């Protein structure tokens, strides 16, 4: 027998899982062409088509899951005892930990992205062939995350970390 | 995930009352996963939840929860 609390808990988990999966798809969609142009074709061009495609797909999926979440939240609000049960201390704690992880993920991604900005490295790497080799590969990596992809990358990583860590912290321990 | 020092007798008390984790979760007003994690000592409940669990069993608080620190 499944209680109403469990049904609602599962429904929330499905919404979070759905948001995570669609964000991951959008992230891969967004990253793959940039990796291809950056690493294989050795081009400095960012893929704006992928950026727009992935962005639209992501916004559309967020809208769908957003509506589902609002419907779910309204149902919960109509029964305060259910609302309290589904959002118990453990769930609140899981959300808090997840937001903290998402914040640090966004912070470190933006710092890393900023550090890898070309002007800093052009002065660090000299003219030796080994240094040139490192510089070329560094540039290839930088190209993947350069503007306008940088802010989107930070956003994607923050959202992915938020939902992944929530799913991780709210999971059930099977053994031990 | 390491076990915490707050021991409990929830499993024993549930068996005595013939309650499933799901039924206990409904009595306490939390999710079943929360009961599962408290029972397995993976999550330290708040005072309110701990008191509610003891009340659901109809026994004093200290009969359900105790400090189990191996270093002491």
Biggest sheet overview of chain B: 2 strands, antiparallel
Shape of chain B: globular
Name the structural class of chain B.
Answer: mainly alpha
Helix residue percentage of chain B: 40-55%
Q: Which structural class do the helices and strands of chain A define?
A: mainly alpha
Q: List segments of chain B where confidence is low: pLDDT < 50 over at least 5 consecutive residues.
A: none
Order of helices and strands of chain B: EHHHHHE
Helicity level of chain A, as a percent range?
over 70%
Distance between the termini of chain A: 25 Å
Total DSSP E strands of chain B: 2
Q: What is the number of domains of chain A?
A: 1
Order of helices and strands of chain A: HHHHHHH
Protein architecture, described:
- The complex is a heterodimer of chains A (176) and B (72).
- Chain A is an all-alpha fold.
- Chain A has one domain (4-169).
- Chain A contains seven helices and no strands.
- In chain A, helix 1 crosses helix 6 (129-144) and helix 1 (4-40) runs antiparallel to helix 7.
- By secondary structure, chain B is mainly alpha-helical.
- A two-stranded antiparallel sheet of chain B has the order 1-2.
- In chain B, helix 2 packs across helix 3 (32-39).
- Chain B starts with 5 loop residues before the first strand and ends in a 5-residue tail after the last strand.
- The interface between A and B is medium-sized, with 19 and 18 residues.
